């Protein structure tokens, strides 16, 4: 069962550098791969997080653009800006992307970084980052504030992804600031919603058509029986 929590937790006092050092040592002792956290001289630290992409709707990407190469990444070439042509594309459901981030990297920056890696040109406000936890047989989702630091949450939870994992999902419709979107983006949203509505109507029609056929068959068989 999936349960989404929207209540924000109160943040405790920020830990000291010594406390962070101890937490990192404890974290690294549990790591079973090479994805360790590293403490920097200035008190910040770096590490890895994995984000599951659970997007139900298509995203907008540049049309006819080749995948990003290592050269493009090193030169910070934005391939999405090389063409004005756009197309809709479904990302693989529950794809996983691994990110190397800093303790100062915010949720907002993680979302923008993921969109850039997949060359998604949709407004970042369409998306939200959730933390996923498993408790008492339930899967709990909690939306993270844009100013939250995912690496710190990873550090507190430890490397076990069953205790905590990150999920990128569509933002709740009521929380999206639609004024921030362009006219083509809004038109694209309407096209997607219209398609989803038609698909849903078709599914309902098929469901009741099958039910109607079974009912008619049952009545036919009942009439053919004596008494």
UniProtKB/TrEMBL annotation:
It comes from the Eukaryota. The keyword Metal-binding applies. GO terms for molecular function: zinc ion binding. One of its GO terms (biological process) is apoptotic process. Residues 87-173 form the Ras-associating domain. InterPro entries: RA_dom (IPR000159), RASSF1-6 (IPR033614), RASSF5_RA (IPR033623), SARAH_dom (IPR011524), Ubiquitin-like_domsf (IPR029071). GO terms for cellular component: microtubule; nucleus. This is Ras association domain-containing protein 5. It comes from Quiscalus mexicanus. The gene is Rassf5.
């Amino acid at each position: 069962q999936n349960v989404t929590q929207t209540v924000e937790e109160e943040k405790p006092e920020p830990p000291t550098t010594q406390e962070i050092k101890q937490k990192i040592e404890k974290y690294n002792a549990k790591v079973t791969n090479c994805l360790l956290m590293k403490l920097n001289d200035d008190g910040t630290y770096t590490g890895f997080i994995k984000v599951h992409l659970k997007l139900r709707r298509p995203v907008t990407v540049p049309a006819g653009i080749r995948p990003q190469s290592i050269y493009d990444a090193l030169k910070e070439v934005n391939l999405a800006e090389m063409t004005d042509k756009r197309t809709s594309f479904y990302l693989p459901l529950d794809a996983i992307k691994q990110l190397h981030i800093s303790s100062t990297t915010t949720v907002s920056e993680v979302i923008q970084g993921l969109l850039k890696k997949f060359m998604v040109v949709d407004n970042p406000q369409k998306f939200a980052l959730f933390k996923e936890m498993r408790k008492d047989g339930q899967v709990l989702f909690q939306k993270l504030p844009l100013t939250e630091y995912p690496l710190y949450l990873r550090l507190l939870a430890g490397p076990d992804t069953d205790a905590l994992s990150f999920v990128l999902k569509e933002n709740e419709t009521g929380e999206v600031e639609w004024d921030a979107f362009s006219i083509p983006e809004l038109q694209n949203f309407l096209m997607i919603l219209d398609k989803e509505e038609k698909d849903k109507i078709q599914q309902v029609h098929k469901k009741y058509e099958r039910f109607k056929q079974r009912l008619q068959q049952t009545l036919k068989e009942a009439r053919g029986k004596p008494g």
